[in-house]
Amino acid sequence: MSAVTGSVARMAKAQSSYRCVECGWTGPKWVGRCYECQAWGTVEEIGSSALGKRAVVAVAPSASARAVPITEVTTSDAPRRTSGIDEFDRVLGGGIVPGAVVLCSGEPGVGKSTLLLELASRVAKTGEKVLYVSAEESLHQVRLRAERTGALTEHLLLASETDLATVLGHITEVEPSLVIVDSVQTVANSGNDGIAGGPSQVRDVAAALTRQAKASGIPILIVGHVTKDGNVAGPRVLEHLVDVVAHFDGDRQSALRFIRTTKNRFGPTDEVGCFEMTGDGIREVPDPSELFLSRQPEPMQGTCVTVAMEGRRAIPVEIQALVSPSSTPNPRRVVNGVDGNRVAMILAVLQRHTGVNLAAADVYVSTVGGLKLVEPATDLAIAIAIASSARAFALPHTVAAIGEISLAGEVRRASVEDRRTSEAARLGYRDVISAKAGTVTTAVSLAKRLADAYSAPAEPKGIPDF
Fold first, then answer.
1. Is 216 annotated as a binding residue?
2. 343 marked as part of a ligand binding site
3. Could you name the Gene Ontology cellular component terms for this entry (predicted)?
4. Region label for 406, one of left (φ > 0), alpha (ψ between -120 and 50) or beta (otherwise)
5. What's the pLDDT band for 306 if we cut at 50, 70, 90?
6. Strand order in the sheet with 178-182
7. Is 276 within 8 Å of 259 (Cβ atoms)?
8. Is 147 annotated as a binding residue?
9. Mean pLDDT, range 231-239, rounded to an integer
10. Is the pTM of this model over 0.90?
11. Which long-range contacts (CB under 8 A, 24 or more apart) does 416-420 make?
């Protein structure tokens, strides 16, 4: 090979490089997985000009864009507007901010499109125009769902479009008060060679819609798909671009749905909205306190009520346990709605410190209503429910338990206990078992005193002083 040929080959090789669209890592050859952030399918080819350093020339800002003291900035130009769905407004922090971009994610079939169509119809019924862009369904399919849920109104405009430029054209032509795009993974930019739903396409679509929202002041709600791990599909930059990331989830075996925010530039991220899926669409549940209680007429063995926190909302939940002799060498441990690892720890604490023989028994623990409990404040109720079934005593309907159990058998105070006890008292639970300040309550004394108080056939003697 001559020197000229070798030089040309080296120049051709230097003209192509590859970069990760997630973290910016660059390399000389394509790889399926980025070496820096370990993301799959995010490495794309770029030209050598993109890697070259260019000098940045300072530009003086315009008079309207000059920096001003933060004390002179007002919020009167960005008032919130209600969506007509109080639970959704609660999660957003009081309503939708003009120019905000909200990403609504969730598993397939959980009800994302139904919720946003209901929201669009309520805003449109106030007389304001709403543009609903469906990139997954035809206009006839959206119409059928709107008829079923009662979302028909003349101010709700539909468009079935997958091209980004055409979507932006619809927004400019209609000039709506609210835009809903379903979904960001199915809209594509014709100027991008990537496939729809790919990292580069999702990034371009999200960036273009965000620029449109900020320039026009029109809030845009975007539907986002999720992966099998529950994360939003596409590059992580999608969550950085939008203002609010709301996740809509729920158990397929239950009609209850929750919406939570993992990112919110305009409000808190610890609020939870509660909904119920019905045959006529989706319905708000402003007070879900009665959904997770069985309300048996007589006290039942193996049950105990606790107060769980869903965001800032305190929700009473009944925990049921069943302990029965096992007929197999390896007893079964079946849980539903609670963490199996925490139940195993509680069983070990009960057997070690209370003398309850659970090694040869099958143990089943479940929540009423299908609510999933993951916080440690429910440990005490789980332990009491198991002890109640094992020692055959029942708690009265006025008793609830709140607290975390340590490996040493100590019962610790739960977070925001005042709010939990207040909600319990509102629903008639006058006696709340918890670790009082300045005292040490152990699972040993707790189980024994409860058994002594409620296992006798006589009238209940009241809650023991712990």
1. no
2. no
3. cytosol
4. beta
5. very high
6. 156-159, 130-134, 178-182, 220-224, 101-106, 244-249, 256-264, 272-278, 281-284
7. no
8. no
9. 84
10. no
11. 416/309, 416/314, 419/309, 419/314, 420/307, 420/309, 420/314, 420/377
